Amino acid sequence: MASDEASPAAAAAAAERIRVVGAWAGSLEVELGGWTVPMLRAEVARRAGGVEPDRINLIFGGRVLKDDPPASLLQAGLKGNAKVLSTLLAPDRGKAIAAQAAAAAAEEEHNNRLVRLWNAAEALCQRHTDGSFHEEDFNLDLEDQSGQKVMFGSVDDLKAVKMALMLHQKAKTFIKRNMHKEALDVLAMAEEAFSLCDPKLIERVDNVPMLQLDIVWCYFVLRDVSRVEVAGTRLEKARSGFERSHGKDSARFRLLQAGRHADLAIYVRLELLEGVVAYHNGNTVKARESLTSAQAKYMQLQVPDEAISILMSMGYGARAAKRALKMTGYDIQSSVDLLCEEREKKIRRVQEDMEMQKEIMEQKKYGKTPMNKAVNMQKLKGLVAIGFEKKLAAEALRINENDADKALDLLTDPEQNCILQQRIMSKAKRLSRGSGSGSSSSRAAAATTASGVNNSQAPVDTSANVPDGSAMEESHVLPVINEEAANNVEAVNDDETVNHEEEDMSDESAEGEEEANPPPVRDVAMENELAHEMTGDALDDYDIDVSNEGQAISEYLSLLDSAA
């Protein structure tokens, strides 16, 4: 009986009274440690006439009580006899505040993503430009339309161009997904990256005018009439840029493309946008001229179904057939020639990628230099060409930060050469023990190579796909170059104590190098996202679906006819 009477008393002692004024006035018995702010808001809303909880604002101690993060009333600072002010928002006001908060959170997330995107692109391009040790199983190179590697100015210029092309490709992905607002932000970043490059180096390529055209296209799709003046300026830059890179009336581009009209879709979009800007500026004569020219080019891109069927009957896919026909003016033989060229390029690229993958795997086996750089394979080939064993030469380059002269001095010094061989043997033996105990591992890595630019007239983004994964750690007993070194190594191996001491010293030295120059933290997810979006298709920039452009041309011509 006594325990039954004590139970309600204990419950009453645990509850505290708080006073609520405002939208609803009264006292509530609450358990401060058990009730949360959302629970209090819901109770006040119920007593205020069953309004939606989102319309109730709770204010205590001069601050608004928030639902996130969830906290008990005690954690929010409420005590017994606390006074809480409740206000009732207008029906739309509550939803507006919630929508505003959601928009602010989305904006913050978007800004954080943009920062990650820039940092990831910068880190990738830095590693693949300054000779840093590759954490990935792919390489980023600049190529022209024929697939030839491009040496582009200084290291800083090369890095800036790679960043710009990588960010531009990301923006194109957003445009294809109809995410034009997000694309504009990334296009602005790509434009900033281009601005870091020497203008004289990029004025002869069409990547920059393509960027200007994509920016104005986003303005148009978003119906942002307030940017008409800015759009006109950007289109002027695009027009002059295309003329510099493609030549007058695209004569130079036609020559490079064997007479093909691969750039026709670009000029449909350019002339459409020029006509739209002229229309909104009141220049109807210029608007009609541009739109009429755009319409004529648009009609040239309407491929007959019969021509597509002929190519498909030869074994080509519908998309590839349609693209080839658009770029060759429906000429069947020229289309077949183009498709054969593209197929040969793909085969050649696969072979090159396999060689590159093999070289990267070999490079990884040699390890990092003290400054986290990879062993320079060209300098290694030079040392091997004059008679030095490859693994020995690689280790000499590694410990000398790829200084070929210092590596050569080390290799030609008999005493230093012997010490170097002992060190390599020690590492090989250590790896052998680790492999025998099952410590070898493998990991999957993103595999795509990157961005390209045409250093002549018509640049494109190029990339190549390579198999995922990296080689497992291997143990090799390295061959010894001379008999004297072999005898020295045998003497060292006879003395287990000395051998273990040297191994420990080698381990400590390697660990000390890594601690002194730790590699920067990577945003692996964002880097892989950027790398995987590089298409490697030399004609991808010119393969534009102009269906929306065709509708817009008809719409604005109708507006001009109505005005007339």
UniProtKB/TrEMBL annotation:
<feature type="compositionally biased region" description="Polar residues">
    <location>
        <begin position="453"/>
        <end position="465"/>
    </location>
</feature>
<feature type="domain" description="UBA">
    <location>
        <begin position="302"/>
        <end position="342"/>
    </location>
</feature>
<feature type="region of interest" description="Disordered">
    <location>
        <begin position="429"/>
        <end position="472"/>
    </location>
</feature>
<dbReference type="InterPro" id="IPR015940">
    <property type="entry name" value="UBA"/>
</dbReference>
<dbReference type="InterPro" id="IPR039749">
    <property type="entry name" value="NUB1"/>
</dbReference>
<dbReference type="GO" id="GO:0031593">
    <property type="term" value="F:polyubiquitin modification-dependent protein binding"/>
</dbReference>
<dbReference type="InterPro" id="IPR000626">
    <property type="entry name" value="Ubiquitin-like_dom"/>
</dbReference>
<feature type="region of interest" description="Disordered">
    <location>
        <begin position="487"/>
        <end position="520"/>
    </location>
</feature>
<feature type="domain" description="UBA">
    <location>
        <begin position="374"/>
        <end position="414"/>
    </location>
</feature>
<feature type="domain" description="Ubiquitin-like">
    <location>
        <begin position="36"/>
        <end position="84"/>
    </location>
</feature>
<dbReference type="GO" id="GO:2000058">
    <property type="term" value="P:regulation of ubiquitin-dependent protein catabolic process"/>
</dbReference>
<feature type="compositionally biased region" description="Acidic residues">
    <location>
        <begin position="492"/>
        <end position="516"/>
    </location>
</feature>
<dbReference type="InterPro" id="IPR009060">
    <property type="entry name" value="UBA-like_sf"/>
</dbReference>
<feature type="compositionally biased region" description="Low complexity">
    <location>
        <begin position="438"/>
        <end position="452"/>
    </location>
</feature>
<dbReference type="Pfam" id="PF00627">
    <property type="entry name" value="UBA"/>
</dbReference>
<protein>
    <recommendedName>
        <fullName>UBA domain-containing protein</fullName>
    </recommendedName>
</protein>
